[in-house]
Design goal:
The protein has 8 helices and 9 strands. By secondary structure, the chain is an alpha+beta fold. The strands form 3 sheets. Strands 6, 7, 8 and 9 form a 4-stranded antiparallel sheet that branches. The protein has a 3-stranded antiparallel sheet with strand order 3-2-5, with no helix packed on it. Strands 1-4 form a two-stranded antiparallel sheet. Strand 7 and strand 8 form a beta hairpin.
């Protein structure tokens, strides 16, 4: 009698265990009935199903990453740039995701990568290299995320974030780009040198003009002082002459003798009665 009860209880336990399933907090689930979706986007927690008739497929609800390989894209200048990008995405509609990809994450990543590359190709084709590298990267990201979300919704996924981690030149374009950049830098350097030389010439001209003015003022002041000194000397001489004219004449003659007979080898040829030697001739004076 006990065996049938134990068997029945065991069967009930097995039935309950096979009927119950748990969806993790980091997951979402879909319930099938004979392969047909009957319930989707099942929330985390304890749920039940009919064994054999129903089966359950779970999917991660966390943010997933797609780190694509660097790809070449053509700008509107018909030059290639190598772009390295990554995408943050999540499964937003499990039912649509399962129908479009069969629930295979690899298929989803491949299709999402193609969507992103098409979007990047479209964005870069409208811009120059300079705009793509420095000026409009944020606009590229915004436009790409908006347009790629529209296509990604068909897969049942949502784009959380898109980032271009690196933009580089292709090997063919690198040398020509570097030459153009070098030429531009040289042009800027030459322009700066020319401006510097012009400024230097202007400063030099101003300094020369100021120096000439200063020298002229100094010469004028010196001549004025010299004139004042000569006038003063003349006054002194005149005053001395007026006091004792003969002594003044005698002193001036001695000065003339001293200056004219400085060197012992000097020879002077003059008439004996010359006025120059009058103080030698007249001893009484």
């Amino acid at each position: 009698m006990k065996n049938p009860i134990i068997i029945a209880l065991a069967a009930i336990v097995v039935l309950i265990m096979s009927s119950a399933y748990v969806v993790d907090q980091r997951e979402t689930a879909i319930k099938f009935r004979f392969g047909e979706i009957v319930e989707e986007n099942i929330k985390p927690g304890l749920h039940f199903k009919i064994p054999i008739i129903n089966n359950v497929e779970t999917f991660s609800s966390r943010i997933l990453s797609l780190d694509a390989k660097p790809e070449q894209f053509l700008t509107n200048e018909k030059k290639y740039v190598v772009v390295d990008f990554f995408v943050k995405w999540r499964i937003s509609e499990p039912g649509k995701f399962y129908r479009s990809t069969g629930g295979d994450l690899r298929v989803a990543r491949n299709r999402l990568e193609n969507i992103m590359k098409d979007g990047l190709r479209n964005e870069f084709s409208k811009r120059t290299i300079q705009e793509a590298i420095s000026g409009e990267r944020d606009q590229i990201m915004e436009g790409l995320q908006t347009k790629s979300n529209e296509a990604a919704n068909q897969l049942g996924v949502g784009i959380v974030d898109v980032r271009v981690s690196q933009i580089d030149f292709s090997e063919k374009n690198s040398e020509s780009v570097f030459k153009r950049m070098r030429s531009e830098r040289q042009r800027v350097a030459q322009d700066l040198r020319a401006r510097g030389a012009e400024e230097a010439e202007r400063i030099k001209a101003a300094a020369d003009r100021d120096a000439e003015i200063i020298e002229a003022d100094a010469y004028s002041a010196a001549e004025k002082i010299r004139g004042q000194g000569d006038a003063k000397a003349a006054d002194v001489y005149a005053e001395a002459y007026n006091k004792d004219a003969e002594f003044y004449s005698f002193h001036r003659s001695l000065e003339a003798y001293r200056k004219s007979m400085t060197n012992t080898g000097d020879v002077m040829v003059m008439e004996p009665d010359s006025e120059f030697f009058r103080y030698f001739k007249n001893k009484s004076q």
